[in-house]
Amino acid sequence: MSTYLKLLRYLRPHLGTFGLAVVCMAVCTFLGIIQLSALIPLADRIITHNVIPTPLWLPLWLANLVNWFNHTSPATLLIYSTIAIPVLFIIKGVVEFWQTFYMFDASQRVARDLRQALFDRYVTLSLDFHYKSSTGKTMSRILYDTSIVQNALTEGLTDLIFQTFQLLGALALALAINWKLSLIIAVIVPLIAFPVNRIGRFLKKLSQQSQLVMGQLNSTILESISGIQVIQAFRVESQAKAKFADVNRRSYVVNRKIQKRITALAPLTEIVGSVAAAFIFYYGVHAVLDGRMTFGTFVAFLGAMLSCFRPLKRLSKLHGTYQQALASAERVFDVLETAPTVIEHAKARVLPPFHREIIYEHVSFHYDGQPALRNVSLTIAAGETIALVGPSGGGKSTLVNLLPRFYDPTAGRVKIDGIDVKHVTLASLRAHIGLVTQETFLFNESVRANIALARPAAELPDIVEAAKVANAHEFISKLPKGYDTIIGERGHLLSGGERQRLAIARALLTDPPILIFDEATSQLDAQSEHLITEAIERVRKNRTVIVIAHRLSTVRLAHRLVLIQEGRIVESGSHDELLQKSLLYRRFCELQLIHAEPSSDDKES
Asked: Could you write out the three-class secondary structure of 433-455?
């Protein structure tokens, strides 16, 4: 299906509003024809006092109107015309207002729906898509590309329909006056269409380059703002400025090329049109002097032909606008048509309450063809606390990410109480799981809103209870507005330990039977680590807890440790058992647990 047809699907729900705009355009065109047609009686009857000829093909009502003109004195016609001209313009102005309003409203609705559909698609696409797509590129598509499409719909579609009506109306009038001379349009259109089409195709390619650079520009800005502390700490402000200047310059160059070609379209049309107008003027004056055409008819014909050139000029420029919009729309539909790699089956059922066990059954997983997990089999009993340990990049995070179906295994199955997680709804599966990650993401909302993220209707006592269990209530109570304190973008007004404890409270509020802690204490100071370890020990009662850990204090909480290396489970047992039987685990403890110095936080926890 073409991109144009895809866009029209988004216009379909708003055809009523769009139809009103089209009706208003038709009325405006009709009023414009009346204004042009009035030149004949004004010039022939009022100024030269000539009788207006009545062609046989004229409709009866028009023939009667011409007859009335011929039998009315020029002075009376002048009075009527003086009254009629402003009345016509007032009516036309009112209709144009509603035409613009309805078209703008319809295009805004389409842009709103398109933007919403794009955002909805982004939040449902699997994590692998987001890891491959930069934030700047995503923002560029949601904001920049949809804005270009919206502009094409708001101004472009209005102009396309209105100017087409104007062109057809003026051409019909010109054909009615002198059809032979009107055929000059058949010569003009190909002369304009060929270069316009060539320029338009080039504009589409340039627009694709412009949108790519815009994504890079957004990424550079976001990266620099997010990493401003690192930039200043390492004194690389000049490199950051140079990087932005390079992308900014490329954006300027490509957009300058676009504007240069769009600007060339209007003069091109005007040059061709002026040659045609000169020919019409020359022929028309001779026809008037020879008596083959009245002066009023010539003025009306010239006005009609000039009214054809104006729409042609606008339509040629519109072609460039639509090529830009087409490039943007293609980028939007690329995302809308991207299928999630994690799909909820049509017959998926709600996952029953968890009672028995989680089973990884011969699971393998590949990232872009590279193996991350190799034939892993693991059983975790309900109520068990298990710690996944091993070198970085060994596959620990990948293993836990398969449980809530952030990814699906390349081979093998993940089952909860004997049910393949692919056969249950994503909502019910993820409702069973609470997740606390190393890089805690908090929203620029109140403490209360962040804790109640997955349960917005939660009462304050429930929120406070979750905070107490997570060792967060004490520091929250000391905040300026307590649970109503806004914590800033990504929670930057809190320390690292405070953010982690808030994340634990958020995970606990929905009372999930399974909790995952993905290196939740790896970047915290000793005091914060102690508080979070204490919270983990408290929350693991009557829950199944999976901990990815590099700290001895966290590992010792587990009933069982699973040592993972290069995507395989190499050892399993308690901490003491592994110390006795596994040289690899002893080395791991010596290097990463016993001798690891806790990292300090920039703030007190």
From this structure: EEEECCCCCCCCCEHHHHHCCCC
User: Which is nearest to 522 in space by CA: 440, 449, 399?
Assistant: 440
Residue with tokens 């398969």: 402
Q: What is the CA radius of gyration of the chain?
A: 36
Of 347, 297, 301, 386, nearest to 569 (Cα)?
Answer: 386
Q: Say if residue 592's pLDDT is above 70.
A: no
In whole angstroms, what is the distance from residue 58 CA to residue 80 CA?
Answer: 22
Report d(CA 377, CA 379) in Å as an integer. 7
Residue that is written with structure tokens 């520009």 in the block: 217
* CATH T-level assignment (fold) for domain 345-432+546-551+560-598: Rossmann fold (3.40.50)
Q: What is the pLDDT of residues 435-445, one digit of tens each?
A: 888 778 888 88
**Alpha helices (runs of H) in 354-512, residue ranges in sequence order:** 396-401, 426-431, 447-451, 460-469, 473-477, 496-509
Nearest to 272 by CA among 365, 358, 207, 194: 194
pLDDT in tens, 164-203: 887 887 788 778 777 777 777 767 777 777 777 777 677 7
Q: What is the pLDDT of residues 502-515, one digit of tens each?
A: 988 998 898 899 99
Domain boundaries, the chain: 3-336, 345-432+546-551+560-598
For the chain, the farthest-separated pair of C-alpha atoms sits apart, in whole angstroms, at 120
CB 596 within 8 A of CB 550: yes
Asked if residue 269 lies in contact with residue 312, where contact means CB atoms within 8 angstroms, the answer is: yes
Looking at the structure, give the CATH architecture of the domain made up of residues 3-336.
Up-down Bundle (1.20)
What is the spatial distance between Cα 382 and Cα 358, in angstroms, rounded to a whole number? 7
Q: What predicted TM-score, i.e. pTM, was given to this entire model?
A: 0.69
Same CATH topology for 3-336 and 345-432+546-551+560-598: the answer is no
Residues 492-504 have a mean pLDDT of 86
**Cα dihedral sign, 449-451-457-460:** negative
Q: What phi and psi values does residue 191 have, to the nearest 5 degrees?
A: -65, -30
Q: How confident is the model at residue 597 (pLDDT cuts 50, 70, 90)?
A: very low
- Lowest-pLDDT range of 314-328, 369-383, 385-399, 447-461: 314-328
What is the Cα–Cα distance from 128 to 306, expressed in whole angstroms?
57
**Residue 581 CB neighbour total at 10 angstroms:** 11
> DSSP character for 510?
T
By C-alpha distance, which of 514, 522, 525 is closest to 555?
A: 522
The per-residue pLDDT for 161 is: 79
Residues pairing with 416 in the sheet: 358, 419
- Report which of residues 319 and 329 the model is more confident about: 329
